[in-house]
Amino acid sequence: MSQTASTRRQLLARTGALGVSIAFAGNLSELFAGTAAAQNLGHTGYGPLIPDPDGLLDLPKGFRYRVLSREGDRLRSGEGPVPSNHDGMTALAGYSAGGHGRRVHLVRNHENRNTAKIPVPTVAGLTYDPAGKGGCTALTLDSRNHVLSERVAIAGTAVNCAGGPTPWGTWLTCEETEDKAGTNGYTKDHGFIFEVDPANPYRSGAAPLTAMGRFQHEAIAVDPRSGIVYETEDAFERPFGLFYRFLPHAPHGGLGSLRAGGRLQAMRVPGVPDLSSIQQTGASFESIEWVDVPDPLAARTPIRFQDFGPKGITHAQKLEGCYWGGRSVYFVSSFARSADGSAADHYGQIWRYDPAARRLTLVIVFGPDTDIQLPGESPDNICLAPSGGLMVCEDGNGAQHVYGVTRRGEVYAMARNAQNIGTPEQPEWGEFAGVTFSPDGGTMYVNCYTPGTTFAVTGPWRR
């Protein structure tokens, strides 16, 4: 193990009328290393947010939105109403049937538990467990973000939170639950990853990728060279979640390749049982170990409780976002609280793992050692923007925002949810989720979790 001193500490710009500050320690530019976003990053924000007269989405001047889909409306396929709880999402490139004309396939998670107001409609050939109310819907858009189709992509799953795209153009949707058959009315075990083909969901069906583990999945990222899939676990109670990698038997990919199975391993950082104990940005750990998971299906014992030998395994609270950039995988711990059992407190960490060097580095820390935390709560869904740096979905109390962060470390409010789901006396706003960009970088897509709404935001992104 080697540790280096924090490279810098920055207090990020105030977001004007919001009256809030964001602070972090570390070198933000490292997050963009080796990515397209590093080539053309926005240097400042886009100005103050303008109140939306329609009361849906506040944006800076020059930006506009289109509502693509709203909870309770009819799916264009006629399969039923648009389900509740819009969460993780990705945008994948596509083309018209004749090969002419650009299309965008949006595949959207619905984090529905058994109490969900509007379940994902069950569809023959696309339903895993008829008792499950979660799943994904898929929208196909033309080049002007007009919705051409909207349909169920997978149904009968549960608590579909996040996931991630594959290099071969599909979506891996993740169940954030460990409920087994007989629990909450389910007829099958849950806690799996499923592959979804948004262009033709019947090609992917509803088959759980059991070798990738049964646990409270959050997000994934695929190494495009090796085919290794990295997975985060958002466990709510001690012992907290693990960071995993899945070594597929068919590493060259393609729809259905992950069904061939593989080995599931969990990360061990020598001498570090809890990642929250590391507070110094730039801290680097060599010779990271990967330990085979004794029982990936967790038939008797959840994976994080299983016996990983006398050296134990490394845990972390609230492991959420995950993406591949350059030659490394980045993953987020949204927060850690000693009152919950973590080794130390923080309001967000971003870690980088370099597989070639077997090195883990703490890149960014959000408070409390920086004195100020993110407004409401810490980073949840994040994505790299083609020209605006990093986009972060806020998930907490009070007004909810999408924040942009430039490579220079400047923070600005990109969007604010104007839909009050509370009362005038006690206003409440649903969180943002699933922020992603179109393949050409011209549109930001983002979900409002409640009431479920999917927006397409266009404007002078390359200003």
UniProtKB/TrEMBL annotation:
- What Pfam families does the record tag this protein with? PhoX
Q: Does the keyword Signal apply?
A: yes
Signal peptide range equals: 1-25
Look up the domain of life of the source.
Answer: Bacteria
The record's InterPro entries line, in alphabetical order, gives: PhoX (IPR008557), TAT_signal (IPR006311)
Q: Could you list this entry's UniProt keywords, alphabetically sorted.
A: Signal
Which PROSITE patterns does this entry report, sorted A to Z?
TAT
What protein name does the entry list? Answer: PhoX family protein
- Species source reads Streptomyces cyaneochromogenes
